[in-house]
Amino acid sequence: MSHFRLHEFVDPLVNDRDDEYGGSPANRARFPAEVTAAIDEATPDEFVIGVRTSQAAVTDEQRVWPDGEKTAAVLFDALSEAGASHVHVTGGDATAPEVPDADRTLAKLAIEHVDDDVAVIANGSLGNPENARTALVDGSDLITLGTGALANHDWPNRVRAGEPLDDLDPSIIFQPDASLSDAEVPGDD
To answer: Which segments carry the region annotation Disordered (predicted)?
Structure first.
């Protein structure tokens, strides 16, 4: 859901509908909850249904929901009730409050509002081991890494051993010199 179609229903800065899918936080959460419920009904009980969400947008990483705490509460309640197995929240820093007028992180709000059997996964600046520990101590069931894992494929082992972590070197990942001229192209006789 993060940054894509379902997210556009939740975000009041994008969703200007005046029907049952727009306006109030409950209406804006309706479509993501209906999609989650439809997936839950169409799949076996052991099928894992995860929903990733963020306040940010692809074009605006600093965006927050104007009624953030209310939207978060309603959305997490609705997704939990609809059958989500886990809620994966992401933001710039998973250990810092990002919701307007709230002193809690988006992960903390999820923890408060989902059922006990719904896992909460936190993401955002958790490549820093202290931030990762904080997110887990604060109640997240799991954490995910982006940049930290790309730079350190063995991140858990390095952290456990107290070894230094590497910064991401994009040149290692993004190799602009690959070309088809170096490979055989099927059908090119």
So the answer is: 161-189
3-state SS, the chain, equals: CCCCHHHHHHCCCCCCCCCCCCCCHHHHHHHHHHHHHHHHHHCCCCCCCEEEECCCECCECCCCCCCHHHHHHHHHHHHHHHCCCEEEEECCCCCCCCCCCCCCCHHHHHHHHCCCCCEEEEECCCCCHHHHHHHHHCCCCEEECCHHHHHCCCHHHHHHHCCCCCCCCHHHHCCCCCCHHHCCCCCCC
Rounded distance between C-alpha atoms, residue 189 and residue 185, angstroms: 9
Q: For residue 57, list its beta bridge partners.
A: 60
The superfamily CATH assigns to domain 5-144 is Aldolase class I (3.20.20.70)
8 A C-beta contact, residue 92 and residue 61: yes
Tokens of 83: 């059958």
Read off the pLDDT of residues 7-46 as tens digits, 9 standing for 90 and up. Answer: 889 988 889 999 999 999 999 999 999 999 999 999 999 9
50-85 in b/e burial notation, b at 16+ Cβ within 10 A?
ebbbbbbbeeeeeebbebbbbbbbbbbbbbbebbbb
User: Domain locations in the chain?
Assistant: 5-144
